């Protein structure tokens, strides 16, 4: 066995609540005033006095004790209780004065506890015959231990033992010598003790040890001259007085009132001794008083029939002294070993029970704790000591079941087992920290001890919060399986917390930011999986003996621990990122590993592990990812919506730049949409068609709203002038007369041709207003939106990462050509509307002066269309310069239609300033051909000639009506009016009905023919209108 240099002995812990160099709680109360050396020396004195009649302890001729044991020759009193040792001749302690053949010793106690014999030579503890075995004269003191084995644990001649000539015969050590050696008592102290007892018992050889007040006898009979110097004697005397103080005043076995006169006087004498040693000579005045006081206090008995003095049996003094004796069973050379002579030593210690107030139950409890404590202070090097402690707990359990337990025993039982349980559970509740692959087997010894301690204390106990658990966490445990279950869960939680703490420390050291949270979660998942595998490989096979599904419980705990951290991480994130997805996907993989571990280790479980699986609240990774992705989509759509809202409030419809002639808001809107789609496909998950449709649907609604906003520019009707009332043309009207008077001063045709020209050239200014130009920007914006939608649709429909749709609606929608087909249709309609409004604004508002206001005013010859065409061309040039290429054709067509409409309006609703003769037909036809030519030649074929001709048919039809005779017009009017009204032929006395104004003018429309007649400068027409409709004359 490995030699171990003792770190700390029992004596190092006296007076401390926690044993030095350990985290084991001292269960026997704190003893003030006496240090470890004083306790040790006093314990030896009591032991020697109690065993004075045993071989080797008294008389002039020391009795030699031979360690011979035969397990079958005697009956013991239980494990660890002494029980006496047998020999071949039946002598209890060996033969007196006889030579015996030395045999290899065997220990009944060791055999019962499962400890191995040391297997050393029987003469291992030998002393030279006739030679005094002892230490040098240096006494023991608080400042100088001066005892054998106090250093390295080896005997050394320089450490207090004399060497002997090798030729001299050797003999085995007596039990007294072994005990003195184990208790580190010097020869000088031992000699003083022997002499004192001899003097005390002169003539009283039959006096019982429990009737001797040993400290008092030592004070009476030991002289200062027996010490090396006065200081040494004073230290020794102070120890004896402190022992009396502790046993009689501080910790008396029978309660003592503070007002007791004997106690007050004794306390005063002891205080005086602190400054000056007490005179113990025969002539001393204080010694008789001291003797009387001590005797009076010692002989107080609760039971008058007993004959025992009580000076060392008060708690906790008695336990401190007895534990000091029990500690001597460990070999001072290697304190992981128990002496082979343990049987004899325990039997001798039993003689101190009466003096110290020890019972067998208390002995078993103290002996158990000493074994357990020794395992700890020897750096847990010897697992056998732990096994022995567990074996002794069986004896303690039997004692604890007895009904006649004393209050002191119950107190000791609770504190001792609580100390042992606390130490063991501290490790079991964090066994990942305390045990590694090399020493994991220790759990097999530690766990039974913890379970036995718990069972003795009570089946139903509360496990208080231990390291790593949340404050206030408690758990009721009612079986070994439940307790082991709790150990597993607690240790897993502690180990998991340590991993997190280490990661946090690393992050703080590197000053990493918020984005490192995901990295930490990924690492934590790997660490969690490693922890689960380590648990399954190292700990679960051992713990399975007490808990069938130990590995499953560990997996469940890890699942809960990681799940808690995962939920905290997700709580601070309302949207999805690459990092978040990676964390969730890793969590999903970890969950599968842990669930698989539960399944694999649940074969022997009654419910097949279903109960454990129910504890594992699913991470629901897929649903969380889906929820976060939908939240992300909502956030992106909200961002686009905010952009749209800002556009509605602040858009001015100025071009973004020359190269980007559309509204700035459109660029921003489409950039946000494009970025959203790009980020959408960068998210590392399987994107289904359903999700694509969700995003596209949300975007489409916003695009439709924006399209509606762009198209909100009024209507063409707001620019068409109100139609004047129908009147019949009166050649003698005031207007005609005024016009004729003004004719000499009227502008010539050349002057009219120069209207609108720029001051320094031949090119007239465009009449296009700012408002109309803004309409062009709206039109550009719509076309930009349309082109961008094509690009977005391509990004959505051709992305290789898109998975098939799961929803029927989405599968049906997939068959359509575009995700934004409704928006595209809306844009086409909006383009038509904006183009139409822009065209009517350009012709009826911007070009009002050259078209509706000037064309054919007064007479046709002086109001030709040429000036208007020059302005029109400039306007068209400006329009094509502003508009995007794709917008020009539609815009040009709408301008053409508007200009044709203004011609019709001039001809059919030109007001009182216009009159036409049949002879004007040719000029008007010529002007209209010129207008048609503008559109056929402008813009490099933007409008095909056949389209121009088709749109011009209505105007040409009206112009043809203007070339017909009045009578023909009247006849045609009557026919179409009767047909449209359902009258048939007009009978005698019947009047033609007034045809309604539909605004859809054409040569077959009765209202159109009627208007031609109204503007015909002809007497016949005038009479027809007067007779048929009583139309008034023009003023």
UniProtKB/TrEMBL annotation:
What keywords is this UniProt entry annotated with? Coiled coil
Q: Where is the sequence biased in composition, kind Gly residues?
A: 77-95
| Originating species | Arabidopsis thaliana
Region: Disordered, residue numbers: 76-100
Protein's UniProt keywords contain Lyase: no
Q: Where is the MHD1 domain?
A: 581-723
Question: What PANTHER family does the database record attribute to this sequence?
Answer: F19P19.6 PROTEIN (PTHR31280:SF20), PROTEIN UNC-13 HOMOLOG (PTHR31280)
Tell whether Coiled coil is among the UniProt keywords.
yes
**Which top-level group of life is the source organism from?**
Eukaryota
User: Which residues, by range, are in coiled-coil regions?
Assistant: 493-520
Question: Any stretches that span the bilayer, and where are they?
Answer: none
**This protein is called what?**
Uncharacterized protein
- The record places domain MHD2 at 862-973
């Amino acid at each position: 066995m490995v030699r171990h240099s003792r770190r700390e002995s029992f004596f190092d812990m006296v007076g401390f609540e926690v044993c030095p160099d350990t985290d084991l709680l001292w269960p026997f109360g704190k003893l003030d005033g006496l240090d470890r050396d004083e306790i040790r020396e006093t314990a030896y004195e009591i032991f020697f006095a109690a065993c004075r009649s045993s071989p080797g302890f008294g008389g002039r001729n020391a009795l030699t004790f031979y360690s011979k044991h035969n397990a079958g020759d005697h009956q013991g009193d239980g494990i660890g209780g002494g029980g006496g040792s047998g020999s071949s001749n039946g002598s209890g302690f060996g033969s007196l004065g006889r030579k015996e053949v030395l045999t290899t010793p065997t220990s009944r106690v060791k055999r019962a506890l499962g400890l191995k014999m040391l297997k050393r030579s029987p003469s291992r503890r030998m002393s030279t015959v006739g030679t005094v075995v002892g230490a040098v004269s240096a006494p023991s003191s608080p400042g100088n231990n001066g005892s054998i084995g106090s250093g390295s644990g080896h005997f050394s001649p320089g450490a207090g033992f004399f060497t002997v000539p090798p030729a001299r015969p050797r003999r085995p050590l007596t039990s007294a010598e072994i005990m003195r050696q184990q208790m580190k008592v010097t020869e000088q102290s031992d000699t003083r003790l022997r002499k004192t007892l001899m003097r005390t018992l002169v003539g009283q050889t039959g006096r019982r040890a429990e009737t001797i007040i040993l400290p008092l006898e030592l004070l009476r009979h030991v002289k200062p001259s027996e010490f090396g110097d006065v200081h040494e004697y004073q230290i020794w005397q102070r120890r004896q007085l402190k022992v009396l103080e502790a046993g009689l005043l501080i910790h008396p076995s029978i309660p003592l009132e503070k007002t007791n006169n004997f106690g007050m006087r004794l306390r005063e004498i002891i205080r005086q001794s602190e400054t000056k040693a007490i005179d113990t000579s025969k002539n001393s005045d204080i010694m008789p008083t001291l003797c009387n006081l001590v005797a009076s206090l010692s002989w107080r008995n609760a039971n008058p029939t007993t004959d025992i003095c009580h000076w060392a049996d008060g708690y906790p003094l008695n336990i401190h002294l007895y534990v000091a004796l029990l500690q001597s069973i460990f070999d001072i050379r290697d304190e992981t070993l128990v002496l082979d002579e343990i049987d004899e030593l325990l039997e001798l210690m039993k003689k101190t029970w009466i003096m110290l107030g020890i019972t067998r139950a208390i002995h078993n409890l103290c002996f158990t704790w000493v074994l357990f404590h020794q395992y700890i202070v020897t750096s847990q090097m010897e697992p056998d000591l732990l096994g022995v402690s567990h074996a002794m707990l069986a004896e303690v359990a039997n004692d604890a079941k007895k009904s006649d337990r004393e209050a002191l025993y119950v107190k000791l039982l609770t504190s001792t087992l609580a100390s042992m349980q606390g130490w063991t559970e501290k490790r079991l509740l964090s066994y990942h920290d305390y045990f590694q692959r090399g020493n994991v087997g220790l759990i097999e010894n530690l766990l039974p001890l913890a379970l036995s301690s718990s069972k003795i204390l009570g089946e139903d106990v509360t496990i208080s919060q231990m390291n790593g658990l949340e404050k206030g966490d408690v758990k009721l445990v009612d079986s070994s399986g439940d307790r082991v279950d709790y150990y597993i869960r607690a240790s897993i939680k502690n180990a998991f917390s340590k991993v997190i703490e280490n990661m946090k420390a690393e992050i703080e050291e590197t000053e990493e930011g918020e984005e490192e949270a995901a990295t930490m979660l990924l690492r934590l998942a790997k660490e969690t999986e490693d922890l689960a595998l380590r648990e399954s490989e190292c700990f679960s096979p051992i713990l399975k003996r007490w808990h069938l599904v130990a590995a499953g419980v560990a997996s469940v705990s890890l699942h809960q621990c990681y799940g808690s951290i995962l939920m905290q991480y997700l709580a601070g994130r309302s949207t999805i990122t690459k990092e978040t997805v990676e964390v969730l996907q890793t969590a999903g993989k970890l969950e599968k590993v842990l669930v698989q571990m539960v399944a694999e280790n649940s074969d022997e479980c009654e419910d097949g592990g279903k109960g454990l699986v129910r504890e594992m609240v699913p991470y629901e990774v897929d649903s969380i990812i889906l929820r976060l992705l939908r939240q992300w989509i909502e956030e992106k759509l909200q961002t686009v919506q905010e952009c749209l809202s800002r556009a509605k409030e602040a858009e001015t419809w100025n071009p973004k730049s020359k190269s980007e002639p559309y509204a700035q808001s459109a660029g921003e809107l489409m950039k946000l949409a494009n970025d959203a789609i790009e980020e959408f496909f960068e998210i590392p998950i399987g994107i289904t068609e359903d999700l694509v449709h969700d995003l596209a649907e949300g975007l489409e609604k916003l695009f439709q709203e924006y399209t509606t906003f762009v198209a909100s520019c009024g209507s063409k009707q707001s620019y068409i002038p109100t139609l004047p009332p129908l009147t019949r043309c009166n050649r003698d009207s005031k207007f005609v007369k005024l016009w004729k008077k003004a004719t000499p001063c009227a502008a010539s045709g050349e002057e009219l041709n120069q209207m609108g020209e720029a001051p320094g050239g031949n090119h007239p200014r465009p009449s296009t207003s700012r408002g109309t130009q803004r309409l062009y920007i709206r039109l550009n914006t719509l076309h930009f939106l349309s082109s961008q939608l094509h690009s977005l649709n391509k990004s959505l429909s051709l992305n290789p990462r898109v998975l098939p749709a799961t929803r029927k609606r989405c599968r049906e929608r997939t068959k359509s050509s575009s995700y934004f087909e409704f928006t595209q249709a809306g844009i086409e309609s909006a383009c038509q509307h904006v183009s139409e409004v822009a065209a009517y604004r350009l012709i009826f508002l911007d070009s009002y002066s050259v078209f509706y206001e000037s064309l054919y005013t007064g007479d046709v010859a002086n109001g030709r269309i040429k000036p208007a065409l020059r302005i029109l061309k400039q306007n068209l040039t400006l329009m094509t310069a502003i508009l995007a290429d794709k917008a020009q054709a539609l815009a040009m067509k709408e301008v053409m239609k508007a200009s044709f409409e203004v011609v019709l309006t001039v001809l059919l609703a030109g007001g009182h300033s216009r009159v036409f003769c049949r002879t004007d037909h040719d000029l008007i036809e010529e002007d209209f051909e010129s207008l048609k030519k503008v559109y056929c030649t402008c813009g490099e074929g933007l409008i095909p000639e056949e389209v121009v001709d088709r749109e011009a048919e209505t105007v040409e039809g009206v112009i043809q009506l203007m070339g017909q005779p009045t009578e023909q017009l009247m006849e045609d009017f009557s026919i179409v009016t009767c047909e449209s009204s359902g009258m048939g032929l007009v009978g005698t006395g019947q009047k033609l009905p007034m045809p309604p104004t539909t605004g859809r003018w054409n040569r077959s429309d009765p209202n159109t023919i009627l208007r031609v007649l109204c503007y015909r400068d002809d007497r016949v027409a005038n009479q027809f209108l007067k007779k048929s409709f009583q139309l008034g004359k023009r003023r």
